[in-house]
TrEMBL record:
Coiled coil (UniProt feature): none
Protein name: Acetylornithine aminotransferase
Family of the protein in this entry: Belongs to the class-III pyridoxal-phosphate-dependent aminotransferase family. ArgD subfamily.
Protein residues bound to pyridoxal 5'-phosphate: G97, A98, F130, D215, E216, V217, Q218, T273
Co-factor: note: Binds 1 pyridoxal phosphate per subunit.
Main localisation: cytoplasm
N6-(pyridoxal phosphate)lysine, modified sites: K244
PROSITE patterns: AA_TRANSFER_CLASS_3
UniProt cross-references to InterPro entries, sorted A to Z: AcOrn/SuccOrn_fam (IPR004636), Aminotrans_3 (IPR005814), Aminotrans_3_PPA_site (IPR049704), Class-III_PLP-dep_AT (IPR050103), PyrdxlP-dep_Trfase (IPR015424), PyrdxlP-dep_Trfase_major (IPR015421), PyrdxlP-dep_Trfase_small (IPR015422)
GO molecular function: transaminase activity
Pathway: Amino-acid biosynthesis; L-arginine biosynthesis; N(2)-acetyl-L-ornithine from L-glutamate: step 4/4
Length: 396
């Protein structure tokens, strides 16, 4: 048998972490890596954070899982915290980002169904979006690499150009339920939506009674220096998917909605066996204990500015490789003039972990707990590596 026991759907790198400490990962032979990938924007508190670890340990010993058949003091408390700190009035907990987006799609459709408009089932989505790997979430994007071979895809999605307000407005018809959009595209290459774009979508939703659904799975949970990215736009969604960083490494997600938007989500319409179990809630609470305060969020913005300007200062020294820096807070992307995937692979041999994204972007997504010394180490190592890097012939 040639197939590996782990289904070979990932091009796994030779980096094989077995231990983590703060901003560093350690491989099987003790090799050390500076982790500016953070599990793809997940490990907000780095590795082995004492408060998160202790909370999970204590909750695991107290009560791990009971199912959603019973009352949940743990779920109620964390949902209340999300309600208190966001636009939302109600929360459904999931185990992943894709499930949070699925719940968001279902909530948007069900809103119109409950109002007697079951034909309003189409979501307008955007080019190069990434919403996950389930059937609905791959149907919601135009990226061929996510969709090829999985037909028939689900109906009910219309993809138009990202940041093109006119195209989005022109796509509205009598079947439109709303818009599904990442305020800052992650996998698509750290591409922020413009303010005019999101403001235009919001206005169209008001005018046509549509649902504005934000996918903040990657850009949410303090990553950009506010609890959620929408705050910086001053534009609130009706429904929002959150995940990745929300559990700090514990697998969980959440679908947040206003009371109006969740109008169709009554008893029996949705569910999850694990979703919101006491162990997940302990992880989420521990993450929020650390991040959900002005001091921490201001720190993220400051570190983001520091890292961005250090990267920008470095670029002229290697302008055959790097073009520009984009993004918000500690969700940064370096636009490259060469294949970013090959460069990210090369950086791993220098002990630096970053993540490739679309549009030849190298994503820089460190734990939010980094210190000045880590920023310096990152940029120094990156700059030295860039000086030595030989652009592969095929990518030149
Ligand atoms: C990662 C991601 C998802 C999917 O999350 P999973 O936990 O992998 O299912 C959805 N949307 C965005 C914007 C993401 O970055």
């Amino acid at each position: 048998m040639a197939i590996t026991p782990l289904m070979p759907v990932y091009p796994r790198s030779p980096v094989r972490p077995v231990r983590g400490e703060g901003v560093y990962l350690y491989g099987e032979q003790g090799e050390r890596y500076l982790d500016f990938a953070a599990g793809i924007a997940v490990n907000l508190l780095g590795h082995g954070h004492p408060h998160l670890t202790k909370s999970i340990q204590e909750q695991a010993a107290t009560l791990m899982h009971v199912s959603n058949l019973y009352g949940s003091p743990q779920g109620e408390a964390f949902a209340q915290r999300l309600v208190d700190t966001t636009f939302a009035d109600t929360v459904f907990f999931t185990n992943s980002g894709a499930e949070a987006v699925e719940c968001s799609i279902k909530t948007a459709r069900r809103y119109h169904y409950a109002k007697g408009n079951p034909h309003k089932h189409d979501l307008i989505t955007f080019s190069n979006a990434f919403h996950g790997r389930t059937m609905a979430t791959i149907s919601a994007t135009d990226q061929a690499k996510l969709r090829d071979g999985f037909a028939p895809l689900l109906e009910g999605f219309k993809v138009v150009e990202f940041n093109d307000l006119d195209a989005a407005l022109a796509a509205i018809d009598e079947n439109t339920a709303g818009f599904l959009v990442e305020p800052i595209q992650g996998e698509g290459g750290i591409r922020p939506a413009t303010h005019e774009f999101l403001a235009g979508l919001r206005a169209a939703c008001e005018e046509n009674d549509l649902m504005l659904v934000f996918d903040e799975v990657q850009c949410g949970v303090a990553r950009t220096g506010t609890l959620y990215a929408y705050e910086q736009y001053g534009i609130e969604p009706d429904i929002m998917a959150s995940a990745k960083g929300i559990g700090g490494g514990f697998p969980m997600g959440a679908c947040l909605a206003t009371e109006k938007a969740a109008g169709g989500m009554v008893v029996g319409t949705h569910g999850s066996t694990y979703g919101g179990n006491p162990l997940a809630m302990a992880a989420g609470q521990a993450v929020f204990d650390v991040i959900a305060n002005d001091e921490f969020l201001n720190g993220v913005r400051q570190k983001g500015e520091r890292l961005r300007s250090a990267l920008e200062q470095m670029i002229p020294n290697h302008d055959h490789l790097f073009e520009s820096v984009r993004g918000v807070g500690l969700m940064l992307g370096v636009k490259m003039k060469t294949d970013s995937r090959a460069f990210v692979t090369y950086l791993r041999t220098k002990g630096l972990l970053t993540v490739a994204a679309g549009d030849n972007v190298m994503r820089v997504l460190p734990p939010l707990t980094i210190e000045e010394e880590h920023i310096r180490e990152f940029v120094d190592t990156l700059s030295a590596a860039a000086a030595e890097y030989e652009v592969p012939a095929a990518a030149a």
